[in-house]
Design a protein that fits this description.
Blueprint: H1 2-11, E1 13-15, E2 19-21, H2 32-45, E3 53-57, H3 60-72, E4 76-79, E5 91-97, E6 104-110, E7 119-127, H4 131-143, E8 146-156, H5 161-167, E9 172-181, E10 188-190
Parallel strand pairs: 3-4, 3-7, 7-8, 8-9
Antiparallel strand pairs: 1-2, 5-6, 9-10
Helix pairs in contact: 2-3
Bound molecules: guanosine-5'-monophosphate.
Guanosine-5'-monophosphate is lined by residues 19-22, 27, 60, 99-100, 124-132, 161.
Length: 192
């Protein structure tokens, strides 16, 4: 998606430790115009698929999934990273190691929001080692729903998450795939 790649080149900041900061338009401040184009692009890439629900993970996934959901005309559900008294139904949970925080979370969701028979599309902001996506895939499996695929805004192709998901035979669409990036020169190369 050229618009997204151009924006990453213009406003993305490459940090040491293989972290790409996009907090001026995606992760902290959010550019809604760009977000709408991202939503339309996901809808185009999964056109022809029945999507009953979009599943994401808090926090950054929520805005992306919510705007994309308008183009799929379906609700979103987000998995939570903290236990809460509000989670009072039958829940399912899975462990996710956070790439940016370096710790492991128990990610929780109420099962009733993914009823059996529904077709679920997973959407998230980044793919690094694939832990978040694999956790969400596990929740889809536990709920007994059918996985349509995984939509990612930025995949870091030099980390192995994308490879793992594709090798599982899952339909993965990443709107921008970073082939390499250099914190010293701020140079970034995208997969064509
Ligand atoms: P994974 O679980 O695939 O290792 O990492 C994906 C998750 O970590 C995403 O949900 C995202 O929040 C965070 N993440 C991984 N790499 C980056 C990065 O380079 N920049 C930002 N902003 N978040 C990242």
């Amino acid at each position: 998606m050229q618009l997204l790649k151009d924006r990453i080149r213009k406003d993305g900041v490459i940090k040491e430790g293989n972290v790409l900061k996009v907090d001026s338009f995606l992760n902290h401040q959010i550019d809604i115009g760009l977000m709408n184009e991202i939503g339309k692009e996901f809808a185009r890439r999964f056109a022809g698929e029945r999507v009953d629900k979009i599943l994401t993970i808090e926090a950054s996934g929520i805005a992306i999934a919510a705007i994309a959901a308008q183009y799929f005309d379906c609700p979103i559900v987000f998995a939570k990273k903290t236990e809460s008294l509000n989670l009072d139904g039958e829940t399912c949970s899975t462990e996710v190691k956070s790439f940016t925080r370096g710790r492991t979370y128990n990610v929780i969701m109420e099962k009733r929001f993914l009823p059996k028979g529904e077709r679920v599309l997973i959407i998230d902001d980044f793919m690094a080692n694939g832990c978040a996506a694999l956790g969400l895939i596990d929740l889809v499996r536990q709920a007994g729903t059918e996985l349509v695929g995984v939509g990612i805004v930025v995949e870091k192709g030099f980390q192995d998450g994308g490879k793992k998901i594709r090798e599982m035979g899952i339909h993965l669409e990443s709107l921008a795939i970073v082939e390499s990036m250099d914190a010293k020169t701020q140079e970034i190369v995208f997969r064509e």
